[in-house]
């Protein structure tokens, strides 16, 4: 990741409507932090496509996110971008929701906000059974908000790209182990619930 080149806004962004499975399958046995870079690049492309930030703001936010990742610290580009844009603390939450709206609009299916996400109990048994999923969820800052056995599983974040990537990885992991394809729900949660859940699920 350290050698990755900065996002170049002058170039045509890669497609963001379809999260590619092949790169994730290739990194399935590799470094879980590869998912951080995958999410960062796809989120940056969606921000660029939706014109949610200036090229200068976006490049600065990307650099800050990569610095965190190099230090093994999870960081979401939306939160970093909201602060990079200079918004006051009391407005960070609403700005992040607006950024999430714009990113969601670039996806094939636009995840909706789950208003009660912070009240759901952490699926400890699921995390214990799928330790690697827990590590990736922590890196992407996208908690698994419910897991009804392995038939119905939901993940949520302020960043719909992060949750979509995690959902695809969960689908692959469950199918590989049990030969079933679970119903995956991808949702968005507001900044306050997200902050609470990431601390609760990942001890951040």
Task: Give a written overview of the molecule.
The chain has two domains: 22-104, no CATH class; 117-202, no CATH class. It is built from nine helices and three strands. The protein has helices spanning 22-26, 34-50, 55-70, 77-84, 92-104, 124-129, 131-140, 160-178, 191-202, and strands at residues 144-148, 152-157, 183-188. 39% of the residues are buried.
* Integer-rounded radius of gyration: 16 Å
Instruction: Give the distance, in angstroms, between the N- and C-terminal Cα atoms.
Output: 22 Å
How would you classify the helix and strand content by structural class? mainly alpha
Largest sheet: 3 strands, mixed
Mean pLDDT: 86
Low-confidence spans: 1-28
Strand content: 5-15%
- Total number of distinct structural domains: 2
Please state how the strands of the largest beta sheet are arranged side by side. 1-2-3
* Total beta strands: 3
Number of helices: 9
| String of helices and strands | HHHHHHHEEHEH
Q: What sort of overall outline do the alpha carbons produce when their principal axes are compared? A: globular
Helix % is 40-55%
Structure in a nutshell:
With 204 residues, the chain is mainly alpha-helical.
SSE layout:
Elements: H1 22-26, H2 34-50, H3 55-70, H4 77-84, H5 92-104, H6 124-129, H7 131-140, E1 144-148, E2 152-157, H8 160-178, E3 183-188, H9 191-202
Parallel strand pairs: 2-3
Antiparallel strand pairs: 1-2
Helix pairs in contact: 2-3, 3-4, 4-5, 7-8
């Amino acid at each position: 990741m350290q050698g990755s080149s900065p996002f170049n806004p002058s170039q045509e962004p890669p497609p963001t409507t379809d999260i590619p499975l092949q790169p994730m399958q290739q990194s399935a046995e590799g470094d879980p932090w590869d998912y951080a870079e995958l999410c960062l690049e796809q989120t940056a492309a969606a921000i660029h496509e939706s014109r949610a930030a200036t090229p200068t703001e976006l490049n600065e936010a990307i650099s800050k996110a990569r610095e965190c990742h190099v230090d093994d610290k999870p960081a979401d580009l939306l939160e970093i971008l909201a602060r990079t844009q200079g918004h006051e603390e009391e407005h960070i939450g609403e700005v992040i929701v607006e950024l999430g709206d714009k990113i969601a609009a670039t996806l094939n299916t636009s995840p909706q906000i789950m208003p009660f996400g912070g009240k759901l109990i952490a699926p400890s048994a699921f995390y214990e059974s799928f330790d690697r999923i827990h590590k990736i969820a922590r890196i992407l800052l996208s908690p698994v908000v419910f897991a009804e056995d392995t038939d119905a599983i939901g993940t949520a974040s302020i960043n719909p790209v992060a949750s979509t990537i995690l959902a695809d990885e969960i689908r692959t992991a469950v199918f590989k182990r049990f030969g079933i394809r679970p119903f995956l729900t991808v949702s968005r949660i507001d900044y306050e619930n997200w902050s609470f859940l990431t601390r609760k699920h990942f001890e951040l």
